[in-house]
Automatic annotation (TrEMBL):
One of its GO terms (biological process) is exocytosis. Keywords: Exocytosis, Protein transport, Transport. GO terms for cellular component: exocyst. This is Exocyst complex component 2. Component of the exocyst complex involved in the docking of exocytic vesicles with fusion sites on the plasma membrane. Residues 8-91 form the IPT/TIG domain. Component of the exocyst complex. Belongs to the SEC5 family. The keyword Transport applies. It comes from Sphenodon punctatus.
């Protein structure tokens, strides 16, 4: 007479909160006898079985997906023990949206660039990099009056480093008479000049 195993019991999850795709470690009892025994894993109602890795009968590592609920149980299902229960829950956090001027936890290191005028390398912080011509196309001021542009784009700016940058304003102000053919020809000249310098 064969005796079935006890149902899975989840007793811990670390971390117990995070955004979607957070890697978590699930601890408990009877979580599976092997990879083929683990047939279901949900966190906050989301199926996480595809990312689950059964480390032992008491430990599973997986990633939390796009959960349906903000907070919910961790349910493990096995062939040998059926659908389990959980004494702990996971809280899904909403990721913060970061704007271009918001602070973030990213370290920006200084960059080196080659200054052709002085024929040397220079180190400067990337935030001070403000190329005069970011598109690499010859700037041709089309003759649109500044007042007309300000009326067309109220509160906006053609300065690409500005929080209120308007790409349309920039293009009208600097490239309204530039053709696509002129851009292609200019690029060819740059490529040929570069090859001759080698």
């Amino acid at each position: 007479m064969s005796r079935s195993r006890q149902p899975p019991l989840v007793t811990g999850i670390s971390p117990n909160e995070g955004i979607s795709w957070t890697k978590v470690t699930i601890r408990g009892e009877n979580l599976g006898t092997g990879p083929a025994d683990l047939i279901g894993l949900t966190i906050c109602g989301h199926n996480c079985l595809l990312t689950a890795e059964l480390m032992s009968a008491s430990k599973i590592v997986c990633r939390v997906g796009q959960a349906k609920n903000d907070k919910g149980d961790i349910i493990v299902t096995t062939k040998s023990g059926g659908k389990g229960t959980s004494t702990v829950s996971f809280k899904l956090l909403k990721p913060e949206k970061i704007g271009i001027l918001d602070q973030s936890a990213v370290w920006v290191d200084e960059m080196n660039y080659y200054d052709m005028r002085t024929d040397r390398n220079k180190g400067i912080p990337p935030l001070s990099l403000r190329p005069a011509n970011p598109l690499g196309i010859e700037i041709d001021k089309g003759g649109f009056p500044q007042k007309d542009l300000e009326a067309l784009f109220p509160g906006m700016s053609a300065d690409f480093t500005s929080e209120n940058f308007s790409a349309a304003w920039y293009l009208i102000e600097n490239h309204s008479t530039t053709s696509a053919q002129a851009h292609v020809q200019e690029r060819k000249e740059v490529i040929f000049t570069s090859e001759e310098d080698r």
